Structures are given as C-alpha cells and as structure tokens.
Amino acid sequence: MFPTPIEKTSRTWQLTYQALLPVALAIWLLPLIAVATFSIKPDADFTNGNYWGLPSSFEFFTNYGKVFFESDMPRYMLNSVLITVPTVIGAVALSCMTGFALGVYKFNGNLWIFFMFIAGNFVPFQILMVPVRDLSVDLGLYDTKLGLVLFHVAFQTGFCTLFMRNFIRALPYALIEAARVEGISEWRIFFFVVMPLMKPALAALAVLIFTFIWNDYFWAVVLTQGPDAQPVTAGITSFNSQYRAAYHLMSAGSIVAALPPVAMFFLMQKHFIAGLTLGAVK
Amino acid sequence: MTDMVSPPIPPQRSRGWYKRNEIAVTPWLFLLPGILFFAVYVIIPIFQSFWISFHEWDGLGEKVWVGTGNYERLLGGDRKFEVSFWNNIKWLFLYLLAIPAGLFIALLLNQTVRGIRLYKSMFFFPFVLSQVVVGLVFSWFYLPREGLLNAILGVVGAGPVNILGDPTLATYGIIAAGLWPQTAYCMILYLTGLNAVDPEQIEAARLDGAKGWKMLWYVVLPQLRPATFIAFVVTIIGALRSFDLISVMTNGGPFGSTRVLSFYMFEESLSEFGFRMGYGAAIAVVLFFIMLFFIAYFLYSMYRDEKGAR
C-alpha cells in the first residue's frame, strides 16, 4: 500500500493526521459550508452585514418554506424529474442493445461503429447546437420536456454504449457460447443470459446519467425557455435574477436543486464510483 | 477472450431466413435504434454545422451562401475570437492542475483510519453538484465586499480584490471554481487506481530502499497509468466544454474578458447580440477541430489497446 499505512508510523504522526483530516475537509468544503449557513440566516443578517458570522436566528423553515411554497422552484424540480427519469431509462435501454451488439458479435465495422459512438460523445456540444435547436423547432419540440429528453437520450447513448460494451466484453463469453449450443435464440440470450449479469452496470449507469442530466445546463438553455419546460439548473438562474441580493433564498434554492443528485450519490455510492472509474483500473 | 464467431449450428428443417442468418442479422437489429437516434441528433448535426458555417443565417430566413467568409472574418482579426481562443488555451493548461491536485488528495486519503470512507465521499462531494450551483457558490465566495475570500484576505492583511470584476483575474477565478469539482473527480479516479496497486511490488521496492518521491515516481505512478489516462481525457474534455461556469459567474464579462469559444459561439448564435447562426457555426467548427485533435489521440490509444487485447 502506498503511502505508508498510517498504523506503521509514529504515534504523533497518527494523531496529527487524524486531527488534520477534519480541518482539510472543512477548508475543501468551505464555499459549501458558507452557502449552507446562508440558507438558514434571516434576511436581516445580510442587510446588517453579518455575512460570515453565525446566523442571528435560525430561519431554516422560513427560507426553505419560501422556496417551496412561494417560488417556481417546485415546478422546475418537477420538470427536472420529468426530464431526467425518462432520459435515464431511454439511454440505458438503447445502450444495453448497442452494447450487446458491439460486445458480443463480430462483424465488419464493429469497431468503427463503436468509435463513432465514442467520438460523438466527446464532441463539443456547440457543434450540435444550431442544427439540434433547428430540428427541435421544426418538430415542434422546442421548449418541451420531450425535446430535451429525446436529445439527451441520443447524446448519452454515446457514453452509455462505451460503458456497456466494455462491461459486456468482460463477461465470460463461454456462457453465451453455451447458450447458443443449446439452441437458444439470440434475443433470448440477450434477455436471459446477458441482462441478468448486467445489473451492476445498469445501476452504475443509471446513477451516473441521472447526475449528468440533472446537472445539465447548456441544453436546458438552448432547447427550453420559461418555467413550463425548464429544468432546475436553468430555473435557478432565473431565480437568481428574481431574488438577486436575497442570498438566503438563493442559497436555499441552490441546495434544494442540488439535493437529488447528492442523495443519489450517497445512496448508490458504490455503483456511482464504479461507473466513473470504469476503465481506470484494469 | 475466445473467438467471437460461434460454431456453425447444424441446419434444421424448414428454417426461415431469419433463423438461418440470425447471427449476422441480430447485431444490426440491436444497433438500429441506437444508431438511428445517434445519427439524427449527433452525427448528422455535425455535418449540418459545417454546412451552416458557410452561410450567413439568422436562423429563420433564407441561408445566404458566403463561402469561407465567416472563417475569414473569424481568423482575420476578430478580437473576441482571439480572446476566446487564448482563454480556451488557459483553461486547457490550468485545468490539468486537477490531475496532480487529485492525486495529492488521493494519496492523503489513501489510509485506513476510522471514518475514512465518509471523508472520501465528502471530498468527492463538489463533483456531484451542478456547475450552475458551483458557479453561484463561487461568485458569492468572490464577492468584493461581502465575499468570504476577501474576509480571509482581510485577516491576513491583504487588500480586497474584485476577482470577477477584474478583466485580468476573472478567467483565473472561474478556472479555480472549475478546478474544485474536477479535482474531486481526479481524486476518485486515483483512489480507485491506488486500490489496485500491487502491494508486492511496493514491498519489494521498499526492501530496495525506495520511498517517498522515488517510490511514487518509479513504482506507483506507472501502475496508475490507466487512471491518469482517464483523468487526462475527462479533464481535457471538461476544459474545452467549459460553458456553464462562465455563463453563471460572469456571462462573458467584464468587457468580454472571460469568453471562451463555446461561450462566444453561444453568444453569436443565440443571445441578445443577434442570431448569427452561420458565424456561430464557424466558431463551433473551430472548437470541433481543436477537440478532434484530442479525440483522435484518445481513439488511437483505445485502438491500440483493443489490438493488444486480442
């Protein structure tokens, strides 16, 4: 193990290390801690210049109550859910199929199609912006949640295919061969042999895509406007212009907006990290 | 891995065309929806953007063919383009600091003390936040009068700085905000990589008297190559895609000093400054070619690995 395990070092160093950890963490998360404190402060603290001191009173319920009951935040949140969940399902479903095809079969152009998905996934968004926006307008999908979902599904399929194909590649191929010898049809092999083995990959992809899509801002701005279809990332910026100096409400709003992916991460940590680090460890 | 072609299945009576060609046809059936979606929303738009970049177009009316006119204007002394380009270069280089910073934190946390798992996830936390939230948080952090940064600087006696209001500092301020989640990401990659480092090699190197820097450089880092590669890929892509933070923190200002290509492109084609889709597309094409350089390199490395694996 590297660096030297802490148990093998001197007692002083062990204690220093354990004491320094929380300090380092506090510095690392300082901006976030500040925002969390902001969100429970009363408005008066900001007008009085008490930015960084302790809250003069505990206004958690007032501030968060305002965000939930007197602003457009709940609508934005609902939009985000209605955009994110179908996207996750769509992208994962499509990429299970493409990943299966590219991982299991040998045919001409296999690697090229695979590379097409990877290259497309790396492309700067901006090169797609004008045509995709145009297409959405033509199809009547501009400023709709469906328009965002369809685009996200398509774009995420690139990354998901990379992920799924590599995962399926690592499965024991003998299982598939054995199934074929038994005379099981190919689509049954997909459903009953491969899919059950893909559960961890499905979980990893689902949390990852959930976070990506929930946090997307660029496409939300390009393909939607207004609280009817905009997700929370875009909503929070209009919230920003509405409550410009109301830091307590803005912070509460930001924290609410950030909560779902954070909850997702803490609940599914193992899968999340497995997804992120795919390929980083051989 | 074994050969992908399955053994020939003995022909049976009265098998349909599909049954006979199952192995050849199935992959295409499985690929069809994915390829269709990807082509419509990703592949074809890339070529459409090339096409649009040769036109003058407001997004609604007729496209007017101007040939390379947009590119000539772009490369022939467009100040905004030059600023954006150099800012992209700054992003590209400074963003790479996330890799050593991530490695450093990973080494710091790669211990087994009580509660270390929680520490690791808390350090990873910034990555899970949306860039919009990170942008907001940091713009408050930088506020000239009320910001925490200036409160800290005040304690050590340094004068107040208005980072986001200063054209020479603003871009660096935004990059620093971007480094926060990116470092967290690289840290996770390295933490996972460190788990897979071969303990026997470490022990052997220890017996040979290697430790500290030498151990890191000659024994550990070579084993972390896959993690470094992925960190490099995601960091480069993140740097070139930077848009959210700029849009949230400065909206390109002050005096356009924080524009990058992706932001400038957006501004030209979809903002109050007008709907110059053709010109915007030309900027996007330039950005695309910068990215293509890296994409080609990534694909080449993957291709080599694929060949090596067989």
From TrEMBL, chain A:
The keyword Transmembrane helix applies. It is found in: Cell membrane. One of its GO terms (biological process) is transmembrane transport. Keywords: Cell membrane, Membrane, Transmembrane, Transmembrane helix, Transport. The keyword Cell membrane applies. Residues 77-268 form the ABC transmembrane type-1 domain. The chain crosses the membrane at residues 20-40, 81-104, 111-129, 149-168, 189-214, 245-267. It is a multi-pass membrane protein. PROSITE patterns: ABC_TM1. PANTHER family: ABC TRANSPORTER PERMEASE PROTEIN MG189-RELATED-RELATED. Belongs to the binding-protein-dependent transport system permease family. This is Carbohydrate ABC transporter membrane protein 2 (CUT1 family). It comes from Litoreibacter ponti. The lineage of its organism: Bacteria, Pseudomonadati, Pseudomonadota, Alphaproteobacteria, Rhodobacterales.
Automatic annotation (TrEMBL), chain B:
Keywords: Cell membrane, Membrane, Transmembrane, Transmembrane helix, Transport. It comes from Litoreibacter ponti. It is found in: Cell membrane. The chain crosses the membrane at residues 23-47, 91-110, 122-143, 169-194, 215-240, 279-300. It is a multi-pass membrane protein. GO terms for cellular component: plasma membrane. Gene3D superfamilies: MetI-like. The keyword Magnesium does not apply. The keyword rRNA-binding does not apply. InterPro entries: ABC_transporter_permease (IPR051393), MetI-like (IPR000515), MetI-like_sf (IPR035906). Pfam families: BPD_transp_1. Residues 88-300 form the ABC transmembrane type-1 domain. This is Carbohydrate ABC transporter membrane protein 1 (CUT1 family). It comes from the Bacteria. Belongs to the binding-protein-dependent transport system permease family. GO terms for biological process: transmembrane transport.
